[in-house]
Amino acid sequence: MSLSRVPGDENLYVGGIFTLRRKSTLEKTGITHIVSVLKYDFKDFEDWEKYDHLNIEVDDVEDENLLGEFENTGKWIEEGLKNGKDGKKGGVLVHCAMGKSRSVTIIVAYLLRQYPYHTVSSALALVRESRPMAEPNNGFMAQLELYKEMGCPRDIDGHPKYQRWLYQREVDLALAAGMAPERVRFEDEELQDETEVSGREVELRCRKCRQSLATTPYFVKHLPNLPKTKSLPTTEPISSLTDSFPMPPLHTACTHHFLHPLSWMRPALEQGLLDSRLECPNLKCHAQIGRYAWQGMKCSCGIWVCPAFSLQRGRVDEIVKRGENNQGQGPDGVNVASGGRKGTALGIRLPPGMRGKGNL
Questions:
Q1: Total structural domains in the chain?
Q2: What is the DSSP string of 50-87?
Q3: What GO cellular component entries does it have (predicted)?
Q4: Bridge partners of 308?
Q5: Element (H, E) at 178
Q6: According to a count of CB atoms within 10 Å of the terminal CB, is the N or C end of the chain lower?
Q7: Are 118 and 220 in the same domain?
Q8: Could you tell me the residue range of the domain that residue 268 belongs to?
């Protein structure tokens, strides 16, 4: 199967590299633009000057970064389809070596960009109607899912989720070498995605001195709600640096709050250690409130988070700042203002002798 037309109204094709030697087929299908998604020297192909050509030099490996190319290729394909030769619409061929992984990834990314109603699954299913062998590798599939989650932005490089994803790659390389990363990306010093800071907001405070430590936008959502029809646990670690999390097993209340790296952690994290303690940033307190481990940490619910920046629930209080009528209740229905004890006032820690006597 050398050349396959993507179903739809556009003259868009996907194929392998041997398609380029079928000059009559390229002419018959009206190809005017070619996107090559591989490392190759194309000087040996005849009549190459007839085509507008874009070359993305990547390998078909899971850790290759194709996500950063999606806007470039998407815009180029869009313009190629509109502007052919002699005032006619163009035809675009996207190819890699086999027309199976890299080229299909670029096609699916284009469909997501042009047609917002598509999901990654539906776009891939569309391509498979004419090219059943289409199968991006797992790394590219994850990048497509992130691209869709980001909203297929025109400025990919500046998007917070993309920057976080790039940093995760840096961390992975450092951990593979048995080292802490050379730089730390503190989330509260970075531009935040507006979709992440709406709705219910909870604040964590040091239980000893009441120092504010983190709010909801900086929590790692390692325990999304599990549908009743799903009960299989995940065996993969969850990254604290991205927002794409596998579904966890059913669980009881966790004993950890996992956070993204925050600037008050700088004195601890810039020591270059793989793991150590986290202390309250209040200079008059310095209570140990948690730990960090670049190589990951297992929560009491059984989920691995990697890297892990953890605050112990027993050493912090939770305050509901917005949402759920500000009743101060956490995910387990208890008063989070007092660290999980029912019947206390929101945001007020009562002296031991007055607990249970109502509000002040």
A1: 2
A2: GSEEEE----S-TTS--GGGHHHHHHHHHHHHH--STT
A3: nucleus
A4: 293
A5: none
A6: C
A7: no
A8: 189-354
Q: Using CA of residue 122, residue 165, residue 170, residue 235, what is the dihedral sign? A: negative
Say if residue 142's pLDDT is above 90. yes
17 inside domain: yes
C-alpha distances (whole Å) from 191 to each of 73, 128, 166, 274 are: 26, 38, 15, 26
Per-residue tokens: 223: 């325990």
For residue 105, count CB atoms less than 10 angstroms from its CB and return exposed for 0-12, middle for 13-18, buried for 19 or more: buried
**Residue 160 placed within a domain:** no
Q: Distance between CA 327 and CA 41 in Å, rounded? A: 65
Domain contains 220? yes
Q: Measure CA of the first residue to CA of the last residue in the chain; give whole Å.
A: 76
Domain boundary among 151, 169, 200: 151
Is residue 152 part of the annotated active site? The answer reads no
Structural domain includes residue 167: no
* 238 bridge partner residues: 305
Helices (H), the chain: 23-28, 70-82, 102-114, 120-130, 138-150, 160-176, 266-269
Predicted confidence band of residue 126 (pLDDT cuts 50, 70, 90): very high
Single-letter amino acid code for the residue at 250? L
Q: What is the pTM of this model?
A: 0.76
41 neighbors 57 (Cβ within 8 angstroms):
no
Q: Would you say residue 147 has pLDDT above 80?
A: yes
The token pair at 271 is 């020591």
Burial of 301 (0-12, 13-18, 19+ CB in 10 A): middle
Q: Which of 137, 132, 159 is nearest to 148 (CA)?
A: 159
Q: Please give the structure tokens belonging to residue 113.
A: 């960009």
